[in-house]
Amino acid sequence: MQYTALTVAAIVVLLPIYVTVAFSLQTGASALDFPSSLFPFPPELSVFRRVFSVGNLGRYMLNSAIVAVAITVAQVLTSILAGYAFAFLRFPARNVVFVGFLATLMVPSEVTIVANYDTIVGFDWLDSYQGLVAPFMATAFGTFLVRQAFLAVPQDLRDASRLDGYGHWGFMWGVAVPLARPAIAALGVFSFLLAWNQYLWPLLITNTDDRRTVQIGLKTLASNNVNEFNLVFAGTVVASIPIFILLLVFQKQLVRGLTSGAVKG
Amino acid sequence: MALMLLLPSLVVFGLFVYYPFGRTIWLGLFRTSPFGNRTTYVGFEQYADVLASSDFHHSLWVTLVFTVMTVPVGLALGLGLAVLAHQRLSGVGIYRTIFSSTVATSVAVASLMFIALLSPSVGLINQIIKGFDGDPIYFLQRPGWALIAVAAVTVWQNLGVTFIVISAGLQSVPDDLYESARLDGASAWMRFVDITLPLVSPTLLFGFVVLTITSFQTFGQIDLLTGGGPLDATNLIVFSIYTEAFRNFNPGVAAAQAVVLFLIVLALTVVQLKLVERRVFYG
Amino acid sequence: MPRSILIRLLALVATSALVASACGGDDGPDESGDPAGTAEVGDVPEADPESDLAAGCPVDVLDDADAPVPITMWHSMTVELNDALVALVNRYNSEQDQVDVELQFQGGYTESLDKYLTALRGGTRPTIVQLEETALQIGIDSESFVPMQACVDASGYSFDDHIDRTVAAYTVDGRLHAMPFNTSNPILYANMNMLRAAGVEELPTTVAEVREAAQAVVDSGLAPAGVTFTTSGWILEQWYGLAGEPFVDGDNGRGERATEVLLDTDLGHEIFEWLGTMVSDGLATNVGNGENAEHLIALATGQAAMTLHTSAALRSVKIAAVDFPDVEVAVGPMPSFGDIEGGTLVGGAALWIDGDTSDEERAASWDFIAWLNEPEQQAEWHAATGYIPIRRSAIVLPEVADLWAAEPEFRVAYDQLVAGEENIGSAGPVIGNHAQVRLDAIVPAFERMWIQGQAPDEALAEAKADADQIIADYTDRLG
Questions:
Q1: Which of A218, B51, B203, C249 has its CA 20 to 30 A from that of C19?
Q2: Which among A29, A208, A209 has CB closest to C323?
Q3: Contact A23 B100 (CB under 8 A)
Q4: Is C337 on the interface with A (CB under 8 A)?
Q5: How far is C259 from chain B (nearest CA, A)?
Q6: Smallest Cβ distance to C124: which of A126, A220, A228?
Q7: Cβ contact A224–C105 (<8 Å)
Q8: C186-344+423-478 CATH fold
Q9: What is the pTM assigned to this prediction?
Q10: Chains with 3 or more CB pairs under 8 A to chain A
């Protein structure tokens, strides 16, 4: 009985995904005949090759990968550094800076797109990787997450390392970071996911296929192939596969990253 | 030392958060020619115009309706799924993965997947309707349906996240509470209302505020599915800012709208900080 | 008086009357880009190698340049159109080594124009950009392009072999601003099988006949509607062109800057009335903005029998129709409201050369653009798409002649364009923010009429008020 409810729910959740996959495996008129449209046998696999040739999805995904990795690395690094400062260091105006970091959480990026666009243009970074990555190289959310993890490092470890002659740098990379690894991994996965899924900013600043990321690439694919919807759907499937894999492999970290704000509050 | 560690983050924030924020307020004070080469100072008159404009009110209203459509439904569904998957049944792990799967979908992916359902010619729903000799429903081309369609896409796309977050909250509810309640003869529904809901409420509240703030940032689905129409039925505020700035070449108006958006989001964030501290059952 | 002399006198009077009406205003070119009245309809620009403009496009430097000169072209061609354009560019690049063209797809015409205008405020600008015909005035106002006349003058190019109207459409004040490349016309697409089954033997040629045909289709129960409509604004302007009436004041915006749309005329009311009642009487369905070709797909899936669409899609439609064997694609000229006093407007897009370019880039661009305009290329382009071959000699090339013999649908748009009477109405309106007028005034009016059931007269009145406001706002912000 409970299984019925679970299965029905699962079907509803999976329906859009299933339909997209099913339609991507058919062409033309056959995809319009219900109910056979839902059961593509035999499946037309050639479309997936065209997704990469005509649809250029390979390039788009490469761009997304480059940008997402760059953003992730940058965010992890800046969060570690800043998180360390907040967790272990005493310095003047510490609270002010803390609030300053907090304030960036209040300004959603959509509010500043016009001004940020002008800034990027000023640096001549339109249609470039730098332009895609730079605005997102730091994150207050990540900083607080890492700070939280650092605060959990026992005092004795800190004292011990100081006695052993380790300065801050040694302590940071030798002790604190390894201990905070789960949180840092969570941040990494989370940052990657957010960066991969970005839409508005890449839309604004990319103009050519050379730098388009996969989300905007999908939009290009969709408007460029109005008559070949199986190609568009195939592209959609392909574009989502990397993240599905990410979800499966890093499920734990992902969950942790998402819930870090929720449960403790 | 501290400065050295904080500097990278502060530089990024300075360049891409603090400075543009100030500049946006500044931009709102000017009226620009379509080619950007002539600007006239009009002061807060432009802000006043924006606040008074019926188009802007409409955008705010549509965004509000959209939020009301997506947030409670999204939370309820997430809670339902989380409760369903919280049972100790064999194989429930598969269901948990399925329920989390939409976290992997981006706005673009989710929107295009829904076109497979909603398109008047190739969409599954209309195929079924046609099988019954009905007339196709133009989900994305009729003002009544369009917002609902976009809301459905959003709710579905967020299901994974809400499910994961609420599940984690559920996990923190101690099992013995349920045990003793069952021994006391409480029905499943009573157990849900008296134990689950209160103990999960901090998570729900967190989800509520995050989803609300996110809904005020909605853009991708609109761009891909409806372009703000039909008849501005889905002209949510971020989309309106985008069109003003990059289609009508009115950065002044766009900036003014952006500042108002900021104030709304700020108010919502403050609400979170207050409510989470006070109304939540920590028992 | 002997009869022959009388006849000759009458002929003289008639001709001079024609000439008199053809010669209109006489003001010189205006600095701000305000077309000042000498733009006679039918004016095909002459090349003047001595002109001041010629220095702006020194076509000879190409030979001395370090080959190949790389140039970029922003375009909006999709599906088969994209394939055809890519084929042309590849052939051009491989057949010579002085110029290398890189194509960059920028989305639809509106998106591409937006991107270009955004790039004006700081950003990478392309060498060539393909802009829709509605971009003429804004292209002039932006003052960011090299007027194509410069290259015409410098190279002594002759338009004798061109279809006059396609060139005149982009000429203001005797000055050519952009070079036509992909010219199209709206045509009627129909599923002849369904029409015949409903008892309609011939394609409708007037809107009254369209209505009758749609009624027949609906009555016979073959489809839920006879026609599909999209909420695009160009159809309105095309009917004005066919009727030979100007769409905006100021001589359709070509004599003076437009200030209002002339919707409040008998024709305007007739059009809105027809469009409104077709839908409210259940004879036509509104499928939205047509960006996903829903209006054509409806023909394929048996939801309707007719629709209006650009001739540029003809090849794509024929290819797609192969998948739907019970659809017989028939194509006819655009149905008119009453007598045709004008002609369909020159639709499609033209190529503009950006001003932020070096002499070599301009020379290279001109070489490429002129190449695209050659009869062989126009023939190939026409056969692969449905765009009208704008060179008269192209139609005798075997490629076109054979195509027209085998698939006569392809000549419908050409015949229609050439048959058009040249006057101020058929020249087409020139409006600064033309795209915005369509998108924010006309489209919502159609939506209100078709979806919310607003009365056609009210929809028209609101459309006019909105459009006039949009035009005024643009002119005001121009400063």
A1: C249
A2: A29
A3: no
A4: no
A5: 17
A6: A126
A7: yes
A8: D-Maltodextrin-Binding Protein; domain 2 (3.40.190)
A9: 0.83
A10: B, C
Question: Which domains does chain B show, CATH number per domain?
Answer: 54-278 (1.10.3720.10)
Q: Tell me whether B74 touches chain A (CB under 8 Å).
A: no
List chain C residues with CB under 8 Å of B30: none
Tell me the shortest Cα–Cα distance from C179 to chain B, in angstroms: 23
Confidence of residue C216 (pLDDT cuts 50, 70, 90): very high
Domains C53-184+345-396 and C186-344+423-478 share a fold: yes
Bond from prior residue into B230 cis (ω within 30 degrees of 0): yes
Question: What are chain A's domains?
Answer: 61-214+249-259 (1.10.3720.10)
Is the Cβ–Cβ distance between B232 and B26 less than 8 Å? no
Cα torsion for A171, A176, A178, A179, to the nearest 10°? 140
Can you state the angle between helices B2-13 and A140-151, rounded to 10 degrees?
150
Partner residue facing A16 (CB), from B87, B156, B223: B156
Question: Which residues on neighbouring strands pair with residue A36, listed in sequence order?
Answer: none
Query: Domain C53-184+345-396: which topology?
Result: D-Maltodextrin-Binding Protein; domain 2 (3.40.190)
Task: Take residue A87 and report the two structure tokens written for it.
Answer: 């967790």
Indicate yes or no: CB of B98 within 8 angstroms of CB of A137. no
CA C285/CA C304 separation, integer angstroms: 8
What's at C247, amino acid-wise?
F
Q: Which residues contact A41 (CB under 8 A, 6 or more apart)?
A: none
- Asked if residues A200 and B69 have their Cβ atoms less than 8 Å apart, the reply is no
Residue tagged 């000699």 (tokens): C393
Return per-residue pLDDT of chain B as tens, 283 residues. Answer: 778 888 899 999 999 999 999 999 988 888 887 777 777 888 888 899 889 988 899 999 999 999 999 999 999 999 999 988 887 788 888 888 899 899 889 999 999 999 999 988 788 898 888 888 888 888 988 888 999 999 999 999 999 989 988 888 888 778 788 888 878 877 877 878 878 888 888 788 878 888 888 899 899 999 999 988 788 899 999 999 998 888 888 888 899 999 988 888 888 778 766 776 655 544 3
Cβ separation of A28 and C107 shorter than 8 Å?
no
pLDDT tens digits, residue range B156-190? Answer: 999 998 998 888 888 877 878 888 887 887 787 78
Each domain of chain C, given as residue ranges in start order, spans 53-184+345-396, 186-344+423-478
Q: In the 8-state DSSP scheme, what is residue A107? A: S
| Edge-to-edge strand list for the sheet holding C284-286 | C284-286, C227-229, C306-310, C186-191, C329-333
Q: Which residue has the tokens 């243009």?
A: A121
Please, which residues have CB within 8 angstroms of residue C228's CB and are 6 or more apart in sequence? C284, C285, C286, C287, C294, C295, C296, C298, C299, C303, C304, C306, C307
Q: Taking a C-beta distance cutoff of 8 angstroms, is the pair C254, C35 a contact? A: yes
The residue among C303, C355, C300 whose CA lies nearest residue C328 is C300
Amino acid letter, C145: F
- Residue C176 to residue C173: CA distance in whole angstroms: 8
> Residue C211, Cα to own-chain centre: how many angstroms?
25
